[in-house]
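Hi everyone, sorry if this is the wrong subforum. Our group has a chain we'd like a structural model of before ordering constructs, and none of us has done structure prediction before. Sequence below.
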Amino acid sequence: MSEHAASPAAWSLAAFEHSHAGIVITDPEQRILWANPAFEKITGHAPHDVIGWDIHAFHHPEQDDDYHHQRHALAQSGHWQGEVLCQRRNGEHYPELLTIDSLYDEHHQPCGYVRIFVDISTMKAAQSHLQLKANHDPLTGLANRSLFDDHLQRALHHAQRHADEVALLFIDLDRFKPINDSLGHGAGDTLLKQVARRLSQALRSDDVLARFGGDEFLVLLQHEAGVDGAQTVALRLQEALEAPFKVGDRRLPISASIGIALFPRDGDSAEELLRSADSAMYSAKHAGGGGHAFVDPLLSQQLQRQLAIELALREAVADPDSAFHLAYQPQCDLVSGRVIGLEALLRWHSTQPGQPSPRDCILLARKLGLAVRLDRWVIGEVIAQRRAWQDIGSALAELPIAVNIVDDHLRGDATDRLPLDHFLRQHTSDASWLTLEIACDSLADEPESTQHLFRRLQRLGVSLALDELGDGHVNFAYLSRLPIRQAKVNGVLIKGIAQDPRSQALLGGIQRLLETLGVECIAVGVENEESASAVRHQGIHLAQGNHLAKPMAADELSAWYNPRR
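Answer:
Right subforum, don't worry. Here is the predicted structure as C-alpha cells:
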C-alpha cells in the first residue's frame, strides 16, 4: 500500500488487521459483527466463528461492580473503560483491560460499539509478584513486619470497637546463633524455613504468623485470644518444634522462648503490645528457654519507667533552660600541659529514677526525633557562654570549643529547621572558634549533601572533627575529601592501652594515617598517667580525660583555669 495512494479507510483497515490489541465491533445489542486477528490470538476463537455471538458469552459471570455500570456509562458518555474477567476457548480465565466506545450514524444515533481490549494477565501476575515480595519475607514466605503491622493495627481497631481481646506472641529460637555460626548461614536459612513451616502448620487459618527478623517470629491471635487460648497456642507451637530438624546430614534439636502479651491488659497500642511481648519473651528465655511467659509485672514496671523517662525527656527538650546545663572538659597538650581547647558536654538534671547517661540521653533524644533541637540549644548556650567570657575579658573566650552533633544535621530532609550553617549565621558573626564533632559512623556513606554542608560550614570558619574513631566504621577515602581538621580516638581504644602492645601499635598506625591526611589526632578517655605516657609514646600530643581535667561547670572552669594560664 503506497503511503500517498492509501485512503483513510485503507489505513483504518490496516490498523484493524495488524493491531496487537483485540478489536471487536458489535451491533447495538452487543452481538459481534466483526473481530480482528488479535481477537483470535487472545481468546482462541476464530473471528468468523463468533459472528452473531453475544459478546457477554466471553465474560465470566462474576465481575466487579464497575462492570455492571457499562450500559449506563455508554448511554451517558458513549465511553466505558475497565477491567473484565474473561474466558478463553480452552476454558482458561484471564483479565483484560477493555475500552468500549459508541459508534454513531449520520443522525448521531448509536448504531454499534467498538471494543478494544488487551490481555493483562502477565501484568497482573507481575503486580501480584511485586506485592508478594513487598509484604512477605523472601526466605520463609511468611508475612514480613510491614504486613504484620497492618494486620495488628486492624485487629486492635476491631478489638477496641467490639471490646475483644487480642494476643501477640513473640517467638525467639533458643541457641540458634551457635548453629548458624558453626554450620554456616546456608544451614541456618534451611533451619529457619523448616521452623516457619512447622509453626504455620500448628496455627489456625485465621492466625497470622510473621518473621520479625533473624530468628524471631510473631503470631497474632484474634479469636480465643485470652490467657487460656494464647497459652494453648504457645504450647502447640512448642510441641511443633520438639522433633529434631534435618539439615544436611545432621539432626538438630531446636526450641523456642515465647512471650505473650494481651490486649488491652498489657498495652493499648501496637508498639506497647510489641514491647510487652518482647519483655515477656526475655522472661521465658531467662527461665532457661523452651517455654513461654506472660508479661511480668516487674518488667512492665521497667517499661513504664522507660516510658516515663521518654516523657520526661520530651518535656525537658520543650524547656531546655530549666532541664539541662553544660559542663566543659578541657583538652590538653600532653607535652606542655597547656589547655588547647574545650568540649561542651550536655548534662540533664532530671529527677527521674534510672536517668540515662549523657550518651544514652542523646541516643534516646535521637530515637524520639529531638536530637537536632537539643544540639542547637547546646550550640546556642555555648555561643552565649563564650560571649559572656568575652564580656568579662576571660582568657577562656580565646579557646576553641567543640560541640558534638548528631548526623541528622547532615541530611537536608531530616529536620524542618534551618540548615545548620544558616542557624549559625543567625546566632554569631564569628564561628572561627567553634568545632563541630561528628561520629565517624555518620560518614561511612558518601552523601554529596554532607560535602556541601561541610564546605559551607568551613567558609564560616567552623572546624570539623571526627568523633569516636576506633569504635565505628569510617570511610577513609571519603574522609580524605572532607575538610576534617581533627579526629578523636575513642576511649574504648585508650582504656588499658598502657598494658596492651597491640592497642599501642594500632593507635600509632591511626596517628600516622591521620598525619598523612593532615588531620590532628586527639586521644579521649585518658584516665591515668600510664595511659597519657602510652599515648605520647605513639606521637599523639593532644588528649582529653579525667586525668587531665574533669568536666566542669562554667564558674568552676574559670576558677580552675585562671591559675594555670
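For your construct planning: The chain is about 40% helix and 20% strand. The chain has three domains: 8-125, 136-295, 317-564.
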